[in-house]
TrEMBL record, chain A:
Species for this entry: Pseudaestuariivita atlantica
Keyword Transport belongs to the record: yes
Any single Gene Ontology cellular-component annotation: ATP-binding cassette (ABC) transporter complex, substrate-binding subunit-containing
Gene3D superfamilies, alphabetized: 2.40.50.100, Nucleic acid-binding proteins (2.40.50.140), P-loop containing nucleotide triphosphate hydrolases (3.40.50.300)
Descriptive protein name: ABC transporter ATP-binding protein
Length: 364, 320
């Protein structure tokens, strides 16, 4: 089990930069998510940690040892592929025992180890089956078995649930998390599914366009996004951005937007120009007498809550309100926001302005 | 009423397909069957008109099977005087057959030797083509090779003219290098001709094997070469088998270079078979017997590898 430190890691494929100087630390035993849209460099980062790609520059420390240029076989890291990559010409037992065979472990020891892993994963009954006929979930378990059997220092998982059916995914996600909690092994998990990342991860790195946008716990990333990209990518529906042209001084506790005044977490820096006020749907309340107004365009009923879509002077807004509250398309209603939850962004760069809310999270 | 299905052909379609396949099989099999039959005829029956094709029948189209062709194929014989024949009674069944023509067996023919040459050269060059082809195809498929496309085109371009077009230069070159009429020379020549086919065929097979398998093996603690032969090779078995069959068929049947470059030591069966001439004309049964035996190795080789041709073992292992 190990700590992994990524320092200024960079990967170029010819003229294309897949990962641009990224740094973050994965603590021992953490379930660590690399989250981002496709092509953002998350899989390349994972492959560099595992040794399947060599970085152009930068260092990777595994338990304090620099490993970035070593072949994968000398890193003691296991990898679970998105397509599982089970050896098709071997049965389940041989697939799982294959990493042990390469270490020259005795036959009896291999057998005992495989039996133990099969018991943990609940696949004892399929050990002698060929891998070709297995269901998606069983293949997933065999792939996991092959990874955990040799007790590596860390696990790399490249969208391991991506190939599963939606309903089975949830179940497998729970199983994976339970397995991790039981083994306590450092796990790096790549996904493009923000829900999966929030649900399973201890820490999340959000990447976009080869750059690490933010690094923190799921709650930090949800509540205190560092950029508009992160705010938009995490959460469903995503954060609302009300754009306006205004100014704010350091230490201000409120901001004027289109003639209405809103309370905000105390600003730590001043800014004047194009800004966006970011507020999550659940932090918007409909109030008839509020000065900031919008017209209801649509409502979506979700059981206990509903999503109300409104058009305002700052753009379209989605609010999550109790389903008991009456909102008809065509109505004009007032809105209030929870002041402590608001993040202001600089529209040009997408960067969050420093405030009492995100102090300590940004530039961390 | 039969229910309509997109994937399952209708009964009528199956019937039509069956008839077509059987008709095609008949058309291709008849010459082979005719050769196999001729091998068991006497020289007179082999050229009789109307033709005889029913084994053991007394009817007009029937003939009595005999091993004469095979005996003539494998032996050399001389004509002897009746006194000599009376003094030396026949010892084997083969002697009995040649006595009818007033002859005795004086030794084996060259056929066994030539056949062995064919086996050595055919299988040797097939092995070498597939071995080198697999390594080259793997390299082209997996590594970033400078000018890879140009190299592949160059490799293919060696097949853009009939090989015999360069027969004279090769003849002169082989004479200079002392490779004329040697097994090594013929193996190298057939390998040279086959390797472009092998590289191209195998590259497409290896391209179809996901790289994840090798990566999984690398992660599991194996070296690149171990990953290649333990994980990639078993999955390329289908491609290797079909490539080997194509290479063998070419090398086995090749005639022109064999005539040109081999005379005694390394002559293969194809140029030898037509030289079997009996007394008073071509000995058709012996030639047919030679052709029949010559067909067998390729046939067995193909049957042996058939299961690899029919199903890809990678099926269902990677979820797409």
């Amino acid at each position: 089990m190990a700590q992994i430190v990524i320092n200024n890691l960079k990967k170029e494929f010819g003229d294309f930069t897949a990962v641009r100087e990224s740094s973050f630390t994965i603590e021992d035993g953490e379930f660590f998510m690399l989250l981002g849209p496709s092509g953002c460099g998350k899989t390349t980062t994972l492959r560099m940690i595992a040794g399947l790609e060599l970085p152009t520059s930068g260092e990777i420390y595994l338990d304090g040892e620099e490993i970035s240029q070593r072949p994968p076989s000398e890193r003691d890291i296991a990898f679970v592929f998105q397509m599982f990559a089970l050896y098709p010409h071997m049965n389940v037992r041989r697939n799982i025992s294959y990493p042990l065979v390469s270490q020259g472990m005795s036959r009896a020891a291999v057998k005992a180890k495989v039996a133990e892993v099969a018991r943990i994963l609940g696949i004892e009954d399929i050990l002698d089956r060929p891998v070709g006929g297995l269901s998606g979930g069983d293949r997933q378990r065999v792939a996991l078995g092959r990874a955990i059997v040799r007790e590596p220092k860390a696990f790399m998982m490249d969208e391991p649930l991506g190939a599963l059916d939606a309903e089975f995914r949830e179940h497998m996600a729970e199983e994976l998390r339970a397995l991790h909690d039981r083994m306590g092994a450092t796990t790096v998990y790549v996904t493009h599914d923000q829900l999966e990342a929030m649900q399973m991860g201890d820490k999340i790195v959000v990447m976009n366009n080869a750059v690490v946008e933010q690094f923190g716990t799921p709650q930090e990333i949800y509540d205190k996004p560092a950029t508009m990209f992160v705010a938009d990518f995490i959460g469903s529906p995503s954060m609302n951005f009300l754009s306006f042209d205004g100014q704010i001084g350091a230490g201000a506790n409120e901001v004027d937007m289109q003639g209405a005044s809103f309370g905000i977490p105390q600003a730590r820096e001043g800014f004047a120009g194009q800004m966006a006020l970011g507020v999550r749907p659940e932090h918007i309340h409909l109030a008839d007498d509020a000065p900031y107004r919008g017209e209801v365009v649509a409502t979506e009923y979700l059981g206990t809550t509903q999503i109300v879509t409104l058009t305002t002077a700052g753009g379209e807004v989605k609010a999550r309100v109790p389903s008991g509250q009456v909102a008809q398309p065509g109505d004009t209603v007032g809105m209030t926001f929870d002041p402590a939850t608001i993040t202001l962004f600089e529209r040009g760069s997408g960067r969050a302005l420093r405030s009492a809310l995100n102090e300590g999270v940004l530039d961390g | 009423m039969s229910s309509y299905s997109v994937t399952e052909p209708s009964r009528r379609m199956k019937w039509v397909a069956g008839v077509l396949v059987i008709a095609y099989a008949l058309i291709t099999m008849v010459p082979l069957a005719w050769i196999a039959l001729t091998g068991f005829k006497s020289p007179a029956d082999a050229i009789s008109y109307p033709p005889k094709y029913i084994i053991g029948s007394d009817s007009e189209a029937g003939f009595q099977p005999t091993l004469e062709g095979y005996v003539n194929l494998f032996t050399t014989r001389t004509r002897q005087t009746p006194e000599f024949l009376d003094a030396n009674p026949p010892e084997t069944w083969a002697d009995d057959i040649v006595r009818q023509y007033g002859m005795v067996i004086v030794g084996p023919s060259k056929f066994g030797e030539r056949f062995l040459n064919s086996v050595i050269i055919g299988f040797g060059s097939t092995f070498l083509s597939v071995f080198l082809g697999t390594l080259a195809a793997y390299a082209f498929s997996r590594f970033k090779i400078p000018l890879a496309d140009d190299l592949l085109f160059f490799i293919l371009s060696t097949r853009m003219m009939p090989p015999i077009a360069v027969a004279i230069p090769i003849f002169l070159m082989y004479r200079q290098l002392g490779l004329s009429d040697t097994h090594l020379g013929m193996i190298l020549l057939y390998t040279g001709v086959n390797i472009s086919l092998a590289v191209w065929l195998l590259k497409s097979f290896i391209d179809g094997i996901p790289t994840e398998y090798e990566e999984a093996a690398l992660i599991d603690g194996y070296t690149r070469f171990q990953a290649f032969y333990k994980v990639v090779l078993p999955q390329a078995a289908t491609g290797i088998a079909s490539t080997a069959i194509f290479c063998l068929i070419f090398a086995w049947n090749e005639y022109a270079f064999a005539v040109l470059l081999t005379t005694a030591n390394a002559q293969t069966a194809p140029p030898f078979i037509p030289t079997i001439i009996g007394i008073g004309g071509l000995d058709w049964p012996a030639i047919a017997a030679g052709v029949t035996i010559f067909l067998l190795p390729v046939m067995f080789f193909t049957i042996l590898l058939r299961k690899h041709l029919l199903r890809g073992i990678t099926f269902g292992a990677v979820r797409k």
